[in-house]
Amino acid sequence: MRKLFIKDIDVRRKRVMVRTDYNVPFDEEGNITDDIRIRATLPTINYLLDEEAKVIIVSHLGRPEGKANPKYSLKPVVRRLQRFLGEKVKVLMAEDCVGPKVKKQIEEMRYGDVILLENLRFHPGEEKNDPSFAAELASMCDVFIQDAFGNCHRKHASMTGIDGYVVSAAGFLLKKEMEYFEKAVNNPMRPVVAILGGAKVSDKIKIVENLSKKMDKVLIGGAMAFTFLKAQGFCVGKSLVDDSMLDVVRNLMDMSRKNGTKLYLPVDFVVAETFNAQAETKIVPYQEIPEKWIALDIGPATTKLFTEALQDAKTIVWNGPMGAFEFDAFSRGTYAMVDAVTSSHATTIVGGGDTDMAFHKSGKRTKYRLFLQEAEHS
Ligand code: AMP
User: Fold this and answer.
1) Which ligand 1 atom is nearest residue 269's CA?
2) Residues 146-190: tens digit of each pLDDT
3) Domains of the chain and CATH, by start
4) Which residues line ligand 1 (CB under 6 A)?
5) What is the distance in A from the centroid of ligand 1 to the CA of 267?
6) pTM of the shown model
7) Which of 120, 125, 226, 309 is most buried (CB neighbours < 10 A)?
8) What is the residue-wise DSSP string for 126-160?
């Protein structure tokens, strides 16, 4: 079902909740080092302010794992927002994202002001897509606007769970990104290559399915690769596998063969005895992952293979890191792919917060956009 657009619904003097992706990077002193994600939401916020709505902003930040943690507070974002919106608009901060205190703050705030609620992921209900958490969020607004494009592939309470409880529509940012993505994917300059990684196969399998019909090549890295390797009978040691997806993955490989889409899997890995920054590591070919070891990054031969596969690409779509890139020891594959993508002249669409973060950390810029949800629909 196609989402409504913010202009299709009446938001005038309503309580409007906007789901943003303010998962911004910080330096060691806690200063925001890149505020593009905040700036990108201004068209939606300004439109709502013109309509004299009460603008209630929600977002996640980092991975606090369902518990309040000052390290992942959205407080620094309020100051930046205030600067962008100017003195006429009051930007308030709530200590939490649900509960009676927040409700009272929303009740008492003026129309035409903004309130940023504290990190959604301080509550386990967000990532668990708990219906009661979604309903509680919904109860605080009359209209819900989705503008967190980079997070759209996640089935979290504020992403998909809330839809059933309140009228919802896409904001300006989401609409723009979806249009860009649709054009690049449905009518791409060829060859078009998808790079897919990350951990959760079940989250992304539909996307791989859809992309594999449209892509010329699909490169699979990250923990996703082990489900593909195990499905073909290889030992993947203690690497992350989604056993419930083995049949789905087999079908997908068959389908790709029929469609003429080339699927590339890693040919070597960086393996470690434990999932630990200091663990001993070695590089092994894909058929030789030791039984008790964990593969945590693609190896140099894979990087070379994937880089070569990108050589003639005119469009590149990338979601998900090639390894557990949060640890230096397992980050090389992801950053090598960042290099390959940024030195290519292809139109590049990068999706998902982690991949975006890898680009940011590498200091490289590409004309990237965040995507995903639409791939499932198209
Ligand atoms: P996702 O949210 O599905 O895009 O997954 C992103 C996460 O996948 C990152 O936190 C990575 O650390 C993780 N990841 C990627 N490759 C691996 C791997 N080989 N083993 C374990 N985790 C991985």
Assistant:
1) 19
2) 999 767 667 899 988 998 899 999 999 989 877 877 777 778 889
3) 6-171 (3.40.50.1260), 180-373 (3.40.50.1260)
4) 197-200, 203, 222-223, 240, 295-296, 320-321, 323-326, 352, 354
5) 18
6) 0.66
7) 226
8) HHTT-HHHHHHHHTT-SEEEE--GGGTT---TTTT
